[in-house]
Description:
Bound molecules: 3-amino-5-(pyrrolidin-1-yl)-1H-pyrazole-4-carbonitrile
Number of helices: 5
Structural class: mainly beta
Helix content: under 10%
Strand content: 35-45%
Radius of gyration: 20 Å
Amino acid sequence: NENGEVDAAPESNESEYLSPVTVGGQSLNLDFDTGSADFWMFSSSMPLSQSQGHSTFNASKSSTWSVYKGASWEISYGDGSSASGTVGFDTVDIGGATVTSQAVELATGVSGSFTSDVNNDGLVGLGFSSINTIQPQQQKTFFENIMDDLEQPVFTADLEDNATGSYNFGTIDPSEYTGDIHFTAVDKSNGFWEFASDTYTVGGNKSQCQTCSPAIADTGTSLVLVDDDVAAAYYGQVSSAVYDSSQGGYTYNCTESLPTFGIAIGSDYTATLQGADITFAQIDSQTCFGGIQGNSGGGIQIMGDILLKQFFAVFDGGNETFGVAEK
Ligand SMILES: N#Cc1c(N)n[nH]c1N1CCCC1
């Protein structure tokens, strides 16, 4: 098993990044998700009404597939989407990094948002297997399976804004970042790449958190979801901002120049977003939807693609740390 590197291509509205993965000789475009731990794919045993437009994995066409008899899985995500199905083992190759017996979950049913997202053929969970949903026995993630065979027990994410970036397994490529990588300890007990984040900045002014929920690095989420008091403090500095419940978040006039937003990554580094990088979507001729939103009291702060795509991110399974660098 040598190292591996694959492209990470942003979907049209930059809501997710997709990477080519080969399973049992079949190639699909999957969403690498550090916020979950199930590796699942659209499969030929789904109703066509649900898999139309997607690439599907056909176990009967793989000479290396073996069924995990009696096993099943069922997952639901924070955005209300869900999927479920059966389980087997196959050879998985991600840019050359290969696991010969990866637990692979075949969807027999998915919720509407997966069906309509035709570019996304499934997920590669890169969180910790304590949150894998396979019954009767949880199975390891691709990274957990390959980690000890890599040159370094790491994977990195270089997600780009409106351009193709990359995921790298086994090496930290110095050409992908500048300056130092700022690492912080990860608490994996909830199955996430979770770390403390107790301060934030708005327009360069530092504030101590009130709720101070721990943060997770989550490549599978589009937005940055912070404690509600932090989101209110940020948009309090954006004169046209309102909380629009019909849109499910803060919106503002697209012509506004937004203040910077910084979030602590552990105790000695603040990842700062420029105002121009904070808008997630334009929803009508004048109104924009912010990439920073509240977590509705969810108890964790989610550092999703809006933040990650501005940095080079290192997920270190050896030291159990998470690091970011400028690029
Ligand atoms: N919600 C949500 C979510 C998350 N926090 N990490 N990954 C997520 N998804 C992966 C596919 C759909 C949602």
